[in-house]
Amino acid sequence: MLNGVTSCASYCGNPNPMRVKSSMKWLLKRILPRKFKRFIQTLSLVKLGTQPICERVCNICEYEGYFTTVGRPLRIDALCPNCGSMERHRLLILAVQRGGIPQLEEKNSAVLHFAAEPCLEQVFRNKFSSYATADLFTKADLKLDMECIDAADEQYDVVVANHVLEHVDDKKASTELSRVLVKGGILVCQVPIIEGWASTYEDDSLTSEAERLMHFGQGDHVRYYGADFRQRISAGGFKLINEFTSEGEDVLRYGLLRGEKTFVFEKL
Ligand SMILES: [Zn+2]
To answer: Which residues surround ligand 1, an ion (CB under 5 A)?
Structure first.
């Protein structure tokens, strides 16, 4: 076809309009079906990518069956449709069930839970005689700023703060968390962490939601932790005493993220 246009031009010096028109039709025929084919392929991939892989077990509510796909990027078999637990919540409870956080088995512990996840709050509120949720922005028992906690020294035995430290000044927060814990008290926490990075990635010049989404994975995150997360939190007055990792059969059975960790720090 293009050869046709070229050959016409070679006879008279100008492309033949009829031939150009038919060439365009030929081009459209070639391009459109390919695009359409790609569109169908994409739809098929999305459908395949959101279908559950296998039945799972929720160790929080005891639901057994298919979990739901959630997140961006999508995570298959992530959400328990019964209690709303996600991988990180089931990991924390698994750590407790496996004896990795004995302080969370002690019913008399005074527990402060930042940004409490409903599925965990329900478990903890029924379990502990002294339990309070805390948040600066959403409804909670206490309105507390983790960087400047309005609470007396050594008031709590356990602080739970999952996926909070990547939102705040963690130097101030770890010092404050240490202050409100009794000596020997523990901080249980989870954060987004890239273990392959020796150092945490942060850049104070990135302030917009769009920039933070690109650099730190979420519009309200201020860093992406590297392996030095342990040292950064310890500097607030802690020592790391346990890090519970999801692995092996547990990943399959409970629908966990491979290698995700729950960290336990003890106040010095
Ligand atoms: Zn559940």
So the answer is: 58, 60-61, 63, 80, 82-83, 85
Distance 249 CA to ligand 1 centre (A): 18
Q: Tell how many helices (H) and how many strands (E) occur in the chain.
A: 8, 10
Ligand 1 mean position to 99 CA, how many Å? Answer: 20
Q: How far is the CA of 119 from the centre of ligand 1 (A)?
A: 8
What CATH architecture applies to the domain 95-267?
A: 3-Layer(aba) Sandwich (3.40)
- Confidence (pTM): 0.81
Q: What is the pLDDT along the chain (268 residues), one digit of tens a residue?
A: 344 444 444 444 566 767 777 777 776 666 666 677 677 777 777 777 778 889 999 999 999 999 999 888 889 899 999 999 999 999 999 999 999 999 999 999 999 999 999 999 999 999 999 999 999 999 999 999 999 999 999 999 999 999 999 999 999 999 999 999 999 999 999 999 999 999 999 999 999 999 999 999 888 899 999 999 999 999 999 999 999 999 999 999 999 999 999 999 999 9
Q: Which residues contact 93 (CB under 8 A, 6 or more apart)?
A: 59, 60, 85, 120, 123
Q: SS3 of 191, please?
A: coil
